[in-house]
Structure formats: structure tokens, C-alpha cells
Amino acid sequence: MTTFVDRVELHVAAGNGGHGCASVHREKFKPLGGPDGGNGGRGGDVILVVDQSVTTLLDYHHSPHRKATNGQPGEGGNRSGKDGQDLVLPVPDGTVVLDRHGEVLADLVGHGTTFVAGQGGRGGLGNAALSSARRKAPGFALLGVPGEARDVVLELKTVADVALVGYPSAGKSSLISVLSAAKPKIADYPFTTLVPNLGVVTAGSTVYTMADVPGLIPGASQGKGLGLEFLRHVERCSVLVHVLDTATLESERDPLSDLDAIEAELKQYGGLEDRPRIVVLNKVDIPDGQDLAELIRPDLQARGYRIFEVSAVARTGLKELSFALAGIVAEARAAKPVQEATRIVIRPKAVDDAGFTVRQEADGLFRVRGEKPERWVRQTDFNNDEAVGYLADRLNRLGVEDQLMKAGARAGDGVAIGPEDNAVVFDWEPSMNAGAEMLGRRGEDHRMEAPRPAAQRRRDRDAERDDAQQAYDEFDPFK
Ligand SMILES: Nc1nc2c(ncn2[C@@H]2O[C@H](COP(=O)(O)OP(=O)(O)OP(=O)(O)O)[C@@H](O)[C@H]2O)c(=O)[nH]1
Ligand SMILES: [Mg+2]
């Protein structure tokens, strides 16, 4: 028997972006021909895709660490680095993706449905792309951004049209085995089925799937027997089939009280109330079973159930059952809107996608959060002064410096960009643009020799901003 794995922890790591290249074009008689460093390639994504030929999560149980390839660094001569390859991970239909805290990130139903579990990092711009009218020959390039790393939990909720429920040994697995090509284990002891079986049934032109779940007993909701854990596999079914044993040897049981007991457990589990139900009276090949079936039929009919008398062993009543189920399934399918394969892209929630926040913490540190500032920091080679200057320009352009000023930051204060566990911390040195006016007023800006008139300062600042903005707009191909 193949192992059935329906819950795994998966650690995905998307590819890192390749670093941009800082290079200067050289030719004979033309030693400084301008910047020609190419951009780094994008890191590959890790993508989960529903593949109907995959039925368990076993592969991920065996190797739970998956990484997409990195983007290649850019090179001189304006050569861009190659993009990393996306890593496509096939998952069974009905896989639910949860984060570490159990929150549902995606519910993957339907062949081809896709979820980007980890986004590849952007490649860094090379110095060719970073050059502008103001910055003719940048001596730096941007670093590639690390790929997104994430721990997710994959949970399989089998997508079966028909779910068989009932006491242990009622004959659920036997029914699947005679209605489909599946060959589940069948035995005369309770709890033979430890994990759900899935079979494909063909009735006329309708093809549908049927799953059983391990037998339920009273108290399953309190964990008796195998508990209700496996009921998640029937959550998506269109119809529930009560398989009742008409020939049980246990004296305190009979099909009607069995039905009540199972219904009580289903109710405990919840969420299945709206599903249509039918009743299958199994084992009518046994004379006592046949008698009992006839005896309880009126009662069941009074409760509004459609009833099918079958024998999985003698193979009687099966055709009527499978065609009736096909009818219900077809109806349910017609009622459901057609689900299109979707590419769901879930990104980690940025504090504020459009901007950033500045907040002073108890210890006096100013913390800046935001998708852009945090990415820009990761793209910066802090060993290169020019690159750090460029970062300052970008932050300034976004208004980070202004906000820091507003929040009360002064030269020399600590500023952290990023989350607590992964931030770049530095002593703030306000650049001219942001700091001039205020620092000028306070008379603290030691870098300013002759104070410019306010109007001039404003004009200068605007000009610089426009320039920088233009450079950014023109040359960031990832924007
Ligand atoms: N006589 C007779 N025996 C049957 C019939 N269907 C199933 N059985 C027997 O009942 C026993 C249990 O059958 P299974 O199909 O394993 O029952 P199950 O409902 O899947 O049981 P669990 O997996 O334990 O929940 C086996 O010995 C079967 O051969 C039937 O129609 N007639
Ligand atoms: Mg079974």
C-alpha cells in the first residue's frame, strides 16, 4: 500500500536576484567609454500547481526543503544575468496552503490552479541602468534581492464528489472496490481503513470520484476511534452516503441508531449540514440483513432518505446506486459556477504597500517599515559609498527623511529600516535636501557653509528631486 500523507510542512526558498554589475566600457584609445554593467537576473519563483495525477503529499514529506534557482549576476558589456528558473511543485487537487500560524493562504482546487509560494528576488540594476544625466558614471550597482523564504503547511482535502461514511466494517471500502478500479484494503476487523481511499466511478457518461473515510464511532468527535480528523477529506463532496450495516453482529447496534450516531458526529464536526445524503443498506446478501433492511425501510423513507439496498459482496444493487449518485453529482456540478484555474499571488503583507511608516520606539530608535525602503536597503552594497549615497537619495525621494524629521529625529539618532529581526540600523545623517530647512533654522547643520536663501534651497531641492525621479523612472526596468 502506498503511504498516504495528507499534511506536510514545506520550506520554500525562492531564488535570489543576481547582483547588478558595475563596469566601465573600455576600448583601445577610448579608455573610459561609459558605464556598461548589466543587470542581475531575477530569482526563480517557487510555484505550487495542482496536478491531477498527483494524489498525495508524500514527495514533500520526504524532501520538505525546496529552492528555486538564483538569478545570475550582470556582466560588463551590458550583459544581463540570466533569470533563475521557477521551481514548479505539483500538488494534489484540493491542497490547502496554510501559513505557520494556521491561516489559510490559498485553497487550490482545479487542475492547473497555481499559487506562488515564494517570490524570486529582483535582480540588481547594473551601473549602466543607474546612470543618468546627473550620475554619468556610477561606480556602483544594486545588489540582487534575496528570494522570499517561507514555511508553509500543505494540507490535503481530497476533492471527492461522493463521500462514504459509516461505522467500521459497514463495507465502505468494499463498495469503493466494486464500484471503481480502486483496490483498498478490506477486512473483517474494525478500522481496516486508516486513511481515505479514493476511487473513480464511471456511470454512463458521468465520471465522478468517491472517497471513504476511516470508520466513525460514537465519540469520534472526542477522538474515539480514529476521530473526525479525516472528515476534512469529505468537506468538499457533493453528496454524503451513509453506509449502514444490516448484518452487524453487535447486539446493541442497528442501522437506525447507527445512522443517528454518525449524524451526531457529523454535526459535531460541522459544515456538512447542507450536503444531500442518501442511505445505502449494505450486506443484504445475508438473509438476516435482507429482513432487517425491509423492516427499517419505512422509517428511513419517513425521514426523507433515498434508500439503496446493495451487497458489495454479491454485487447487487450497485448499478442503481452508481447511476443515482451520478445524477446527484451532475446536478451539483451544474449548480456550481465553473471554477477557472487561477494564479493566486500572495505576497507578504507590507506595512503599507504604497509607502512606509516611521515610528519611534521606546528605546529612542526610529523604525522605518515599508516594502520599498526595505527592498532598497537589501539592494545596497554598504561597502560602496556611492551606493549608500544612492540609497539615501531614494529614501529621500520617497519622503523618508521628511518623515523622520517630522517624527523628531535629529542628526545622530539611530534609524532602523526593516523588521525587528532583520533591519539595517544606522546613525542618521540628514542629507541636505531633507535637513536643510530645519537644521538651518536650528543652526545645527555643520555641513552648510554659506546658508542659501530659503527660496533657493527649495528650488535646488526640487530640481534634485526631479532629476532623481527622472533617473528612477527611466532606468528602473522592474518598476
Ligand atoms: N456478506 C457481506 N459482507 C460484506 C459486504 N460488504 C462488506 N463486507 C464485509 O465486511 C467486512 C468489512 O468490510 P470493509 O469494506 O473493510 O468495511 P469498512 O466500512 O471499509 O470498514 P473500516 O475500514 O474499518 O471502516 C469485510 O469482511 C467485508 O468482506 C456485503 O455486502 N456482504
Ligand atoms: Mg474501510
From TrEMBL:
Keywords: Cytoplasm, GTP-binding, Hydrolase, Magnesium, Metal-binding, Nucleotide-binding. Residues 160-330 form the OBG-type G domain. Its cofactor is Mg(2+). Its EC number is 3.6.5.-. Pfam families: DUF1967 (PF09269), GTP1_OBG (PF01018), MMR_HSR1 (PF01926). PROSITE patterns: G_OBG, GTP1_OBG, OBG, OCT. Mg(2+) binds at residues 173, 193. Residues 439-450, 457-468 have a biased composition (Basic and acidic residues). Residues 348-430 form the OCT domain. It comes from the Bacteria. Residues 2-159 form the Obg domain. Belongs to the TRAFAC class OBG-HflX-like GTPase superfamily. OBG GTPase family. Monomer. This is GTPase Obg.
